[in-house]
Amino acid sequence: MNIFRFLGDMTHLISILILLLKIYATKSCSGISLKTQELYALVFLTRYLDLFTDFISVYNTVMKLVFIASSLAIVWCMRNHPLVRRSYDKQLDTFRHYFLLLASFLLALLLHEKFAFQEVLWAFSIYLEAVAILPQLVLLQRSGNVDNLTGQYVFFLGAYRALYIFNWIYRYFIDPHFTRWIACVSGLVQTALYADFFYYYFISWKNNAKLQLPA
Amino acid sequence: NPEPEVHDEL
């Protein structure tokens, strides 16, 4: 495992911790898209089926379990916690995420490394993760103001994707057999989706101002 | 085509 991959995993973990902190400390999930969180839970559940079939390392297994447990906990809180669920911006979270599910599934049926149950679901999880942030970005854009923790959450999530690209570039040169086209192309698409957000994030950081997205 | 290896990334 190279440093980019490790830092990518860590920023991913930090983003989830920031989201948990926001929900726990403020008992509020305002600005957070339940649809994006549900898609992430599905991404982890379908991708990490290999927990039952392949052992890679203790690190891998622990991280997978943490991602599954934390994503399910976030969805549960947003749906069921009496205080948290009242703060959910349901009227702003209107992205038609079923289209993302359907498109990702059809693409996985067409493009996969091997036509097998687990491999098709793996490809599905890769495609779905690439677009799962869209409901969140749309919600932020519609609400305009982004609170500090929500802004940091999306920033670290984007940083995780960018670091994974450096990880692939590194692997490509170190290991010439490394060809993960599905993951790499989807990862590029996924990172590109953050470009707009990053732009406004850095402007607000440079001006030391509150993060605001144009309507 | 080589067999896909295990998915070692998260």
TrEMBL record, chain A:
It is a multi-pass membrane protein. One of its GO terms (molecular function) is ER retention sequence binding. Keywords: Endoplasmic reticulum, ER-Golgi transport, Membrane, Protein transport, Receptor, Transmembrane, Transmembrane helix, Transport. InterPro entries: ER_ret_rcpt (IPR000133). The keyword Membrane applies. GO terms for biological process: protein retention in ER lumen; protein transport; vesicle-mediated transport. The chain crosses the membrane at residues 55-77, 98-115, 153-174, 180-202. Pfam families: ER_lumen_recept. It is found in: Endoplasmic reticulum membrane. Belongs to the ERD2 family. PANTHER family: ER LUMEN PROTEIN RETAINING RECEPTOR (PTHR10585). This is ER lumen protein-retaining receptor. It comes from Populus euphratica. The gene is LOC105135965.
